[in-house]
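Note to self: keep these together.
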Amino acid sequence: MLENTDYLRDSTDMAADPFSDVLRMANAQSVISGGFLAGDSWAIRFPEFDKLKFAALLRGVCWLIVDGQDEPVRAEAGDVFLLSGQRSFVLASDLETVPIEAATVFSPHVSKVVKLNNGEDFFQIGGFVRLDSECGGFLADVLPQLIHIRAASPQAGILQWLLGQLVREQESEHPGASLVSSQLAQLIFVHVLRAHLEQAGAMAAGWLRALGDKRIAPALRLMHGDPARDWQLEELARATAMSRTTFALHFKTAAGVAPLTYLADWRMRLAQKALREEDVSVAALAQSLGYTSESAFNHAFKRFTGSPPKRYRTAVRARASGPTHHDRPPTSP
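Structure:
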């Protein structure tokens, strides 16, 4: 068996957490990029972005107008929203003010709070979530265009506490403030997703809806806890206290795929991560993921990704060693 790898869980750690597994797979890392104070009438247009974007309102109210959405969204102090698509958006005090471009307000590559119109009626901080270039789409592609957690929602209390702590860290000069701010931003992102998962029944079928479905959670924990095991449908159904037929139907309704198809797909995600990050041989990787032969693993991997494992590894490592770009976006809300 393989050692010193984190893509297979140790058999003694069976308290598997599929949601955390997904965040680790996507390598989601939150970064505070800045904020602004404003007064009187104002409006700022932010350009399209290739990362998840989050923002929190600490004071005042505003309108959020996302390109392509029919209706503007009113947000108030205590609200947090997450934007997941590559669309421009406008934050505005009212719907009549002509927006100015964010590039004229924010200096590139600088994290700070700027002031508009010398006012302090409104205060907002924001940031982005950096995702793995190869597997980040696994998370980003299933998120809605906008997740809006309102201050009056049951989940808002912990978010408001985290935001208060974040502001204090941003304003302090305490040692480690930058690191603490990043950790708080990560917690804010996770809690926004948790709040979204609590509305899982309203989502389209997919793995994200499945993670929020408490009835099938025991089966998901089993599969994530020991993905190499030859799980049988009867075993998974028993864990959920459902019949085999009821479990299979309920799982597919939530996840969009059958339970064992979900397991096979998760194994392929783990294989992609291992091939990118580890020097494990294809034969050993196949065995560790429960495949009876290297050829069976090669066939499954090629069907899932379009490339055999060795070619995939060569290609992703070549891309990783190529020219890189600065991760900070040119403008920060």
